[in-house]
Amino acid sequence: MKCVMCKRGETKPGLTSILLTRDDFTLVMRDVPAEICEICGEDYIDGDVAKNLYHMAESMQNAGTVLDVRKYQSNHEPVCSASG
Fold first, then answer.
1. Parallel/antiparallel/unpaired status of strands 11-22 and 67-71
2. Which pLDDT score, from 0 to 100, does residue 73 have?
3. How confident is the model at residue 83 (pLDDT cuts 50, 70, 90)?
4. 18: closest CA among 83, 59, 65, 71?
5. Contact status, residue 73 vs residue 48, Cβ threshold 8 Å
6. Cβ-based neighbours of 77, under 8 Å, separated by 6 or more
7. Which of 8, 78, 13, 22 is nearest to 43 (CA)?
8. Quick one: fold of 11-71?
9. What is the tens place of the pLDDT at every residue in 14-69?
10. SS3 letters for 30-81?
11. Phi (first) and psi of residue 15, to 5 degrees
């Protein structure tokens, strides 16, 4: 796809790191699959991956985690599901 940031580059499959923060909680997720612009490096995360990351972060924050660094595990089920 054409990069919406630089409007010149095409994206290619790759891996990126994501930083999620809320209040006193921080999650760094490494090796997240993404489409990455070959010119500017802007990354685009698939909606299902983003949803999985959100649920994981929410679950970890609710459990009292303050800081966590993980490698993204790609599987068919969410890595963590939101409690509620």
1. unpaired
2. 87
3. very low
4. 71
5. no
6. none
7. 13
8. Ubiquitin-like (UB roll) (3.10.20)
9. 999 999 999 999 999 999 999 999 999 999 999 999 999 999 999 999 999 999 99
10. EEEEEEEECCCCCEECCHHHHHHHHHHHHHHHHCCCCEEEEECCCCCCCCCC
11. -125, 145
